[in-house]
């Protein structure tokens, strides 16, 4: 307890004081800030609020640290009750969203939209994304208080005063693409981008700041689904699972969603961004249909009807559920002649970028990162509208618009002739290849380069994106495990006692050695065994995505690692599966379904209480990369199977066997204590060894005596794990594989002995898409023979 006194003003460097404050809970931090002026300055430092902070206390305790904004009224919508407020310690303008945990359906428990939005916003700390700074859980009222930064005025309100000039529209689009690029690198798609959720504000210098908000429809898609020209890695779609086809507000909905595609990618956000781009320059919605089919025909009227022998090209569109050969054959129209894109087409570069964003085929549609490299944004002039030096930052207000005849586009008075000062408009100053776009017939930009920038990321760019995802996931693993596994360059032993997360309410209950799944005696091992068997059995009923059961086990083990007073069992396993299904699956199951599946051994109130407890301990963080996520990320990083030259046509079997071994790792207490990336790497190594394919002994061909000999130098470089580091995980997986093979493939009379432990494995991996991996003999059952 800290009392107000002169001695409280300790002579400490500010950095040390901020470091101490970072370990306090939110309520403690906001209370002790008023001890003295120096502490108040430290508590208002932006470093303390850069990450999302959590607390579990009553609403009254938290709200007393905030004051209402007198000039703005509270309002409510379908997402909750919003109160504009200011944080007292630093007078930061914020929006407090008060929402019930089960505001959609009481029989559902914690709303799946809240789980996804809070989990993903913790990953998205970027200057172009509205930050979620504080989450408070009021258990007594079954309510959440979410405090977002106040980012200004929605673009939708700005456009009521008329269209934006090209210079402002370009700056807004650039910042929106920066936000989307950051989201997509994390494997997160917004799925509801529109002017209402694009916030605009000017600072004291008059610079325009744009941020995207409202992540209630967000979805975590893990790694990119496509791998170069070879398309999907075999089995990747089943790991990610289907997505809902009823997302994105209708005027901004991509055509693949309108045609019933459930395996879409992050490219749906680029279509919505293109629609917003055109709307900013015209002041009206680009595609305004009255229904889904009307929306499709509105798109076809401008861009043409896609399909075989049609005007627009889209390979594979005829396979989508809602596509019909009876669609009217419409030809594409000139964008320069369309009333809603005529203004935009006065700049050829803007027209070219819009065409790339509104490409039918998602594989050919430009990505957010590639769009930022488009010549349209080269030497993009910053807005220099000056405000009074003494005036505070104010929401974006549209200035008086000049007439169409006097507006300037692309930094010059006309795109047809003059170029801006400092060189050619088409010259790239950053060393990238230049692009030439010229007006042909007044409606299209003719391409003079053989390879167009931004159409799709090159293989090297795709590999860089996957590598960033892998490194970010590994960095998070190192924080959670504090273990000496990982790249050889780390070389730092783990501390004896790992500290918990900063400023979190569960830091005091962190596991002593910081590792998840550490078995605390035989009681916990028995409870975990029962939980695993129930989860594997229930997954066949509730899970359509291969990663859902892995996510449920990650949640269960993370809860076990952070709570020492209780031993998690079946109740926590049921709650973990409920949360995993809400985060990953399309179909949301009611609590009664889980009660019935448990044989009514658990009451509905018990499951809901356990679910809330898991959310509190894990701080609503369920965007957890699992072993199967690491497996497919590693395969993409290896450019599978293009760079795997000795697979002998067995690359599909190797992937399916590695996924089977990842599922077997759920049964191993040893693997539960290891990082998921290490388990995934060991599963791939053992799969190659079982199939006797790959390189070993410095590239020579043949069969190795040890499974680790099939781990090549390229794989070690891609994953950061050496052969010696893989050995413990490989040995644990070998033991599980031998037992499973004996149960499932070597039963008496030629039939497998169906034990409860491996019954789920038989039902799942006995399907044809897994290519008979159950009959693949373990590596230990074969004697190594010299290469001939």
What is the compact description of this entry?
The chain is an alpha+beta fold.
Please describe what this structure looks like:
The model is unreliable at 1-8, 225-230, 381-459, 482-522, 696-700, 748-753 and 784-788 (pLDDT under 50). The longest helix has 23 residues, at 459-481. A hairpin with a 5-residue loop joins strand 10 (198-202) and strand 11 (208-212). Strands 1, 2, 3, 4, 5, 6 and 7 form a 7-stranded mixed β-sheet that branches. Strands 8, 10, 11 and 13 form a 4-stranded antiparallel β-sheet that branches. Helix 7 packs antiparallel against helix 10 (267-282), helix 15 runs antiparallel to helix 16 (548-562) and helix 15 runs parallel beside helix 17 (570-584). This protein has 4 domains: 6-104 and 130-149, 2-Layer Sandwich (Phosphorylase Kinase, domain 1); 153-226 and 241-379 and 432-447, Transferase(Phosphotransferase), domain 1 (Orthogonal Bundle); 497-618, Cyclin A, domain 1; 627-781, Cyclin A, domain 1. The chain is 37% helix and 8% strand. The chain is of the alpha+beta class. The protein has 26 helices and 15 strands. It is globular, with a radius of gyration of 28 Å. The N and C termini lie far apart (76 Å). It is found in: Cytoplasm, Cytoskeleton, Microtubule organizing center, Centrosome, Centriole; Cytoplasm, Perinuclear region. Its EC number is 2.7.11.22. One of its GO terms (molecular function) is ATP binding. Residues 34-377 form the Protein kinase domain.
């Amino acid at each position: 307890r800290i009392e107000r006194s002169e001695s409280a003003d300790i002579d400490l460097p500010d950095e040390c004081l901020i470091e101490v404050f970072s370990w306090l809970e939110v309520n403690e931090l906001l209370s002790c800030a008023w001890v003295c002026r120096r502490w108040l300055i430290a508590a208002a430092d932006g470093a303390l609020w850069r990450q999302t902070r959590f607390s579990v206390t009553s609403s009254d305790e938290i709200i007393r640290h905030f004051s209402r904004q007198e000039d703005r009224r509270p309002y409510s919508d379908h997402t909750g009750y919003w109160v504009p407020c200011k944080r007292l310690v630093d007078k930061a303008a914020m929006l407090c969203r008060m929402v019930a945990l089960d505001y959609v359906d009481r029989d559902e428990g914690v709303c799946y939209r809240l789980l996804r939005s809070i989990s993903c916003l913790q990953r998205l700390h970027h200057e172009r994304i509205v930050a979620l700074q504080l989450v408070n859980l009021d258990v007594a009222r079954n309510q959440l208080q979410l405090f977002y930064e106040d980012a200004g005025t929605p673009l939708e309100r700005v456009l009521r005063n008329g269209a934006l000039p090209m210079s402002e529209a370009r700056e807004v689009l650039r910042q929106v693409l920066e936000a989307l690029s950051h989201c997509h690198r994390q494997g997160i798609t917004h799925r509801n981008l529109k002017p209402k959720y694009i916030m605009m504000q000017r600072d004291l210098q008059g610079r325009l700041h744009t941020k995207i908000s409202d992540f209630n429809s967000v979805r975590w898609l893990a790694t990119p689904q496509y791998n170069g020209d070879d398309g999907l890695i075999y089995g990747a779609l089943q790991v990610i699972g289907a997505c809902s086809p009823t997302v994105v507000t209708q005027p901004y909905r991509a055509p693949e969603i309108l045609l019933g595609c459930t395996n879409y990618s992050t490219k749906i956000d680029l279509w919505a961004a293109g629609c917003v781009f055109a709307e900013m320059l015209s002041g009206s919605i680009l595609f305004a249909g009255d229904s889904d089919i009307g929306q499709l025909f509105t798109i076809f009227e401008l861009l043409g009807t896609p399909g075989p022998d049609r005007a627009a090209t889209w390979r594979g569109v005829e396979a989508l559920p809602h596509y019909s050969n009876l669609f009217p054959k419409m030809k594409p129209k000139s964008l320069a002649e369309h009333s809603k894109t005529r203004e935009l087409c006065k700049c050829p570069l803007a027209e070219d970028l819009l065409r790339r964003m509104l490409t039918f085929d998602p594989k050919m549609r430009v990505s957010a990162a590639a769009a930022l490299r488009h010549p349209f944004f080269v030497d993009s002039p910053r807005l220099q509208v000056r405000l009074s030096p003494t005036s505070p930052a104010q929401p974006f207000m549209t200035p008086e618009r000049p007439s169409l005849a006097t507006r300037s586009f692309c930094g010059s008075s006309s795109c047809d002739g003059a170029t801006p000062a400092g060189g050619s408009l088409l010259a790239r100053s950053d060393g990238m290849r230049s692009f030439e776009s010229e007006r042909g017939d007044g409606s299209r930009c003719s391409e003079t380069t053989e390879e167009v920038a931004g159409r799709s990321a090159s293989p090297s760019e795709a590999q860089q994106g996957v590598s960033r995802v892998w490194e970010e996931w590994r960095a998070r693993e190192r924080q959670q495990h504090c273990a000496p596994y990982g790249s050889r360059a780390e070389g730092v032993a783990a501390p004896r006692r790992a500290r918990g997360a900063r400023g979190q309410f569960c830091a005091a209950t962190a596991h002593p050695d910081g590792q998840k799944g550490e078995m605390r005696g035989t009681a916990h091992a028995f409870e975990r065994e029962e939980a695993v068997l129930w989860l594997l059995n229930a997954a066949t009923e509730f899970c359509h995505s291969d990663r859902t059961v892995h996510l449920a086990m990650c949640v269960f083990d993370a809860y076990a690692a952070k709570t020492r007073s209780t031993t998690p069992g079946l109740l926590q396993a049921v709650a973990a599966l409920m949360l995993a299904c809400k985060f990953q699956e399309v179909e949301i199951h009611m609590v009664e379904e889980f009660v019935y599946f448990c044989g009514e051994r658990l009451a509905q109130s018990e499951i809901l209480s356990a679910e809330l407890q898991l959310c509190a301990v894990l701080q609503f963080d369920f965007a957890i990369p699992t072993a199967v996520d690491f497996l497919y990320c590693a395969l993409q990083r290896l450019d599978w199977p293009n760079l795997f030259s000795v697979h002998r046509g067995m690359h599909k079997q190797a992937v399916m066997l590695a996924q089977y071994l990842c599922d077997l790792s759920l049964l191993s207490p040893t693997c539960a204590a290891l990082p998921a990336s290490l388990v995934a790497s060991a599963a791939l190594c053992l799969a190659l060894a079982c199939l006797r394919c790959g390189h070993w002994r410095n590239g020579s061909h043949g069969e190795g005596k040890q499974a680790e000999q099939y781990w090549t130098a390229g794989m070690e470089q891609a994953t950061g794990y050496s052969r010696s580091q893989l050995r413990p995980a490989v040995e644990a997986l070998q033991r599980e594989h031998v037992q499973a093979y004996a149960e499932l493939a070597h039963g008496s009379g030629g039939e497998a002995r169906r034990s409860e432990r491996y019954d789920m494995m038989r039902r799942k991996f006995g399907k044809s898409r897994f290519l008979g991996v159950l009959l693949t003999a373990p590596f230990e059952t074969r004697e190594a023979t010299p290469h001939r």
